[in-house]
Design a protein that fits this description.
Number of strands: 0
Strand content: under 5%
Structural class: mainly alpha
Low-confidence stretches: none
Order of helices and strands: HHHHHHHHHHHHHH
Length: 260
């Protein structure tokens, strides 16, 4: 089957994609008392700890730092959780793949969609916190759903690539932990790009996550739309990610049943 037909097949199996997404959401909070409440609690708890460390212990001074931090933490958390959840998704559904035929790409994609729904709820405490600290919101926040969708496409590309690599190289799971940890500190989550020494700042501009974080931070923290260059680079990164991810995944997916 040609690659365009395989991509069309993903759309054809959209009902299965929906069911897998719902299944992922239910599985994540199975036997949990608070359930989806943890979606809102987790970023708030992490933000509280990091705000205390940087503003009180390390005496890092910035007005409304908690808003700045959470506005960067939410997109990063969505991206990293998408990668972690999708990484072992093909191997985890190995028995299913051996029994029936389904477009294999919908498995990591469903993991990203489940994380997308989950992470969208986390914007409730972010907006509440923003108002609580006296930080004003304006119509620029209407750009957030657009930013979320662009980031979701970016995450899907990496999810397809990483889930494919894990099928062939199980050690890649441990490598991913290190990679994401390094990527976190190389991304302006806890700081802004302007805080990076000028001698090293150009290196950070090669990190595509920098532009996704700015797409969220500008409407929330600065109260304005991201500049056109930031949006263009974010969209270009998302398109490049999904194209490369799909090409690699579709190239090797026929061998998955022999490896899982």
């Amino acid at each position: 089957m040609s690659r365009p037909n395989k991509i069309f097949e993903i759309v054809k199996y959209r009902s299965l994609l929906y069911n897998l997404t719902v299944s992922e959401l239910k599985l994540r909070y199975r036997r949990s008392v608070l359930g989806f409440v943890w979606t809102m609690l987790n970023p708030l708890l992490m933000m509280s700890v990091m705000t205390f460390v940087f503003s009180k212990v390390m005496r890092f001074s910035m007005k409304d730092y908690s808003v700045l931090l959470l506005a960067g933490l939410l997109p990063w958390t969505f991206f990293s959780q998408s990668i972690n959840l999708s990484l072992m998704s093909i191997v985890g559904k190995g028995q299913l793949l051996k029994k029936v035929y389904i477009p294999k790409a919908i498995i990591p994609i469903s993991a990203v969609l489940a994380t997308l729904i989950n992470s969208s709820l986390a914007f409730v405490p972010l907006l509440a916190l923003t108002l609580l600290v006296g930080h004003h919101l304006n119509s620029a926040i209407l750009f957030l759903p657009v930013a979320m969708m662009i980031l979701a496409v970016f995450a899907m590309g990496w999810a397809l690539l990483f889930s494919c690599l894990y099928v062939y190289f199980r050690d890649f799971g441990h490598m991913t932990e290190v990679l994401l940890q390094a990527w976190f500190y190389a991304s302006p989550v806890m700081y802004t790009l302007e805080m990076v020494p000028e001698a090293y700042r150009s290196a950070f501009t090669w990190n595509p996550v920098t532009y996704f974080i700015e797409c969220f931070r500008a409407p929330i923290f600065s109260g304005q739309l991201p500049d056109s260059r930031t949006i263009a680079i974010a969209m270009g990164s998302a398109i490049a990610s999904i194209v490369v991810g799909l090409l690699v995944f579709l190239r090797y997916e026929n061998q998955f049943v022999l490896k899982v």
